[in-house]
Amino acid sequence: MSFLLPKTRNEILNLGIMGGTFDPIHMGHLVTAEVARQQFKLDHVIFIPAGIPPHKDIKTINNAEHRYLMTLLAVVDNPYFTVSRLEIDNNQPSYTIDTVRRFYEIYNGKLNLYFITGADAILDITTWKDYKELLNTCCFIAASRPGYSLSKLKDVLGPLSPEITKKIKLLEIPAMAISSTFIRRRVAEGKTIKYLTPESVEQYIYKNRLYV
Ligand code: ATP
Ligand code: MG
After folding, report:
1. Quick check: CB of 197 below 6 Å from ligand 1?
2. Does the CB atom of residue 143 touch ligand 1 within 6 A?
3. Do the Cβ atoms of 81 and 47 come closer than 8 Å?
4. What is the number of the ligand 1 atom nearest to the C-alpha of 144?
5. 36 vs 94: CA distance, rounded Å
6. Fold classification of 13-178 (topology level)
7. 196 near 26, Cβ under 8 Å?
8. pLDDT tens digit string along 182-197?
9. Residue ranges per domain, the chain?
């Protein structure tokens, strides 16, 4: 499927998955993934750019190849990070449950999967396809994100069983009020995006005249 995926040597892998549109990837994504990797002792984190994101307006999103390449550029210097084309090579809307099922197949179930999300995404969890099955099959790492309060999570999850709610792990990360929307807006306005995203991604954006 993807030659970039970590190989197993028959042991159980602790794998973090970070899904997103990554239009573009930025330091908020990277810091979140790195802090989660260390705190939850993950063997690898796989970034999965969404092909057709079910929650976003496809007309306003950049070409999947640009998003994939920027994500790849952003992770080259981290030996624990990789990128999967699974969702962008699939011409269907990308649902997390389908991706999670596919990962269990690829690794013959020898996997502990941790889906890493920001606070905004986890607060929407009850709108995700088959979310109860999702919570049964993998853990969620819910990272703090400025502007979103994880204290609302209890209300959102409502009366789900404690076994399910305990599979959502909260992760406090250094405040990063960065979003892809903020970066796109700054590029359109001719403002600097230095240090908001890796330099290689910044150069890629200018070279390909994205977001102008
Ligand atoms: P956009 O502004 O286009 O929505 P975004 O910055 O929210 O972009 P996404 O690709 O939508 O980025 O997000 C992918 C995942 O990364 C989501 O789970 C989101 O909550 C999380 N995330 C994004 N930015 C941050 C951040 N600054 N801190 C923590 N988590 C983040
Ligand atoms: Mg977002």
Report:
1. no
2. yes
3. yes
4. 29
5. 23
6. Rossmann fold (3.40.50)
7. yes
8. 999 999 999 999 999 9
9. 13-178
